[in-house]
Amino acid sequence: MKKLLVVAAAVTSLFAQAQTFPANPITIVVPFAAGGPTDRVARDLAEALRKPLGGVSIIVSNVAGAGSSIGSTKVARAAPDGYTLLLNHIAMSTMPALYRNLPFKVETDFEYVGLINEVPMTLIGRPTLPAKNFKELTTWLTQNKGKINLGNAGLGAASHLCGLMFQSAMQIDMTTVPYGGTAPAMTDLMGGQIDLMCDQTTNTTQQIEGKKVIAYAVTTSHALTTPSLKDLPTLQASGLKGFEVTIWHGLYAPKGTPADVVAKLNTALKAALKDPEFIKKEEALGAVIVTDKRMESAEHKKFVAAEIAKWGPVIKAAGTYAD
């Protein structure tokens, strides 16, 4: 009887919280260092969410490390009351394959709030590469098998994942050179120490515009409209059928967060995605706001499940794991 009363009290408490949510400040955990693309998305979103959530304070907390698994674990283990959220990117779909001992299950330990945006990627090369377009690059890659250095920003980074898929699509093994972030990788690419890199437009557009690197293609299924990138072909159109990589961001709550709270968060998120100032800031980053059904919680979850199925074989085929 006592146990039943305790359970009843807990259920009543959660219902009351759902009815009054949000009554306290909300924390959005970003599982990456401050100043990076995901951090910027989170801070811009926090500002856009305040109004539809009744003016509540929203704090962005950076909990970086282990390819975003540390911050994600913190949220998975947080109280399921809607006051601790996770904003993560494509890592949500790659962690299950990358980490043998992941302390949570992506598909079952979170409530899915909604998808936020997608960021295109570009394939770029050192400025001294003799290949000046993708056709010439294909020839150069074939002629230089065993000598190609492909840089990335570290295990699980967007550039790492795109590089794995590019090698798989080209069926050419390259020497992967991991760095401790995009900045040192880009520095070495511009300096000619590595040959190629595939990274987000948020990190490459400025270097492409300054002609500090050679741009070969974009990873989206359609051409981009950004002036400096609009003439770049897609990798699909260049012969790599089915090649499409975008770095998306989504919002999550701990498993067990009341359905009413998740619904309120989803409604607020959809309002934020229509905020003109937020749209302007995202466009400046080269990001595209999600406007389709993936904004909905259930569709967001289906999308991540499909991404897990997409990336798992690529990662396993490469033999890339972390403990």
Automatic annotation (TrEMBL):
Q: State the similarity comment.
A: Belongs to the UPF0065 (bug) family.
Signal peptide span: 1-18
Alphabetically ordered keywords of this record: Signal
Query: Out of the domains of life, which is the source?
Result: Bacteria
**Species name for this entry?**
Rhodoferax saidenbachensis
Name-wise, this protein is ABC transporter substrate-binding protein
Q: Which residues form a coiled coil?
A: none
Q: Name one Pfam family in it.
A: TctC
In terms of InterPro entries, this protein maps to: BUG, Bug_dom1
